[in-house]
Write a structure and sequence with these properties.
With 80 residues, the protein is mainly alpha-helical. It has one domain. The chain contains 5 helices and no strands. The chain has helices spanning 5-13, 17-26, 28-35, 43-60, 69-79. α1 packs antiparallel against α2.
Length: 80
């Protein structure tokens, strides 16, 4: 069973390698799709860059900015 991305982010923020590995695994299909758009000789370098970008995004992600349910509902009302 795959864990939710939020749970994995929590693990990764606590510097658990399992969380980081699982996040990269969840993005693997997207990474593969992007790699098919480039030449075969550039794919290894591009894969490394894409994985680094995912890791950087995890590092920069602020868990404090995630709204709770009530905040989410209020935000949705404002968009409607």
């Amino acid at each position: 069973m795959e864990k939710r991305l939020y749970t994995l982010l929590q693990q990764a923020k606590q510097e658990e390698k399992e969380g980081l590995g699982a996040i990269i695994h969840q993005f693997e299909k997207k990474i593969e799709a992007e790699l098919r758009q480039t030449s075969p000789q550039n794919r290894d370098d591009l894969r490394q860059e894409l994985v680094l970008k995912v890791l950087e995004a995890v590092e920069k992600y602020n868990m404090e900015d995630v709204p709770n349910f009530e905040q989410f509902i209020e935000d949705q009302k404002g968009k409607g």
